[in-house]
């Protein structure tokens, strides 16, 4: 399918070899002349696509059918914004350059490393990105690494398994966890269910047994709807709003439940910064239905981080630090401040399974508040099954 271009490359190499043999030129000079030989008018992204990609991806970008291609994988539909909007431009350049397997996809998607220059790869990816012309869908560039606590502005199709371990005020160990399920609907919305649970080290009866008894309980489940209000690629900013309802399903005696419905509205903001730095912010209110059981609270959470690839398009490491502030709206209550250094890492080639580990440390009001070790595992289920793309 890339025959014409390939033969040009071969011809260029032959000219180069001949030049070295005949004139004793240095390799560099010979290469320069070979370049001149093959110089051709710059092809547009569309031309490149028709010449090098359309054999499989079809001229309209929807992809030829399996039966027509004779492969056991179907090329994706580049005109579908639900699919195409969420893949960052740079990731697609990486796939086109290094081939499907570099990102855990089929080897039928070839590598164009030798056939197309970086500039051409950029142009062809810009072209396939233009095939879905629906700007309402927030682009995948805004899918910034998820901090352990601060909420994200991007809309997700993912499952998060999160766990935290700490001592409670009496010095007993406590492990809490939650499963978060998130699903997009329409171009700008997402719904979410949160199922928290916990294990407490029970009070041991020194006469009965020496080993502590652990009890398992469920926490306050939550339902939420998120909507994206604004995203601007040029400015690198994204803003969303969420309405969350926390249900009193949790066990109050083990400290896992508040015993009242709580309404939690909040805004989330993401800002892409130069040099792969990013800032994420979440600000909101906790408004319990029954005031004596819990107090109104205002919170602000900030996360600053940077995404690092030690090898281009390789595993992504994202060190982050979060600053968490909260204040109960009761006179005399002081602001509570925590800091959470952490690092997120992508685990597989497809980069849709991610792990994060960090520690939440109180910066003030330290009596009765100890450090909490935190981890999560994310599965971006839209990008494939859990075991795909390793
Ligand atoms: C020989 C057939 C073939 C050619 C030629 C081809 N592709 Fe593909 N491409 C595929 C197949 C098949 C897949 C799906 C792979 C999978 O799902 O495992 C794919 C997937 C992709 C993806 C990944 C999308 C995702 O899921 O995130 C991108 C990007 C892509 N191709 C770009 C290109 C570009 C750009 C060109 C031309 C420069 C090109 N392809 C040429 C067969 C091809």
Q: Could you characterize the architecture of this molecule?
A:
The chain is an alpha+beta fold. The chain folds into two domains: 3-130, Orthogonal Bundle (Cytochrome Bc1 Complex, Chain D, domain 2), CATH 1.10.760; 140-383, monomeric porin ompg (Porin). The chain contains eight helices and 14 strands. Strands 1-2-3-5-6-7-8-9-11-12-13-14 form a twelve-stranded antiparallel beta barrel. Helix 1 packs across helix 2 (27-38). The longest helix is centred in the N-terminal third of the chain and has 21 residues, at 3-23. The chain is elongated, with a radius of gyration of 27 Å. The two termini are 28 Å apart. 28% of the residues are buried. Heme C (HEC) binds next to helix 4, helix 7 and helix 8. Residues 1, 52-53, 55-57, 71, 73, 75-76, 87, 92, 95-96, 100, 105-106, 108-110, 112, 124-125, 128 line the site of heme C.
Bulk shape: elongated
- Radius of gyration, rounded? 27 Å
In CATH, the architecture of the largest domain is: Beta Barrel
CATH topology of the largest domain, what is it called?
Porin
Strand content: 35-45%
Uncertain parts: 1-37
| End-to-end C-alpha gap | 28 Å
The number of distinct helices, counting runs of at least 4 residues, comes to 8
Beta-strand segment tally: 14
The structural class is alpha+beta
Biggest sheet descriptor: 12 strands, antiparallel, barrel
- The CATH class of the largest domain is Mainly Beta
Concise synopsis of the structure shown:
The chain contains 8 helices and 14 strands. The chain has 390 residues and is α+β, with helices and mostly antiparallel strands. The chain folds into 2 domains: 3-130, Cytochrome Bc1 Complex, Chain D, domain 2, CATH 1.10.760; 140-383, Porin, CATH 2.40.160.40.
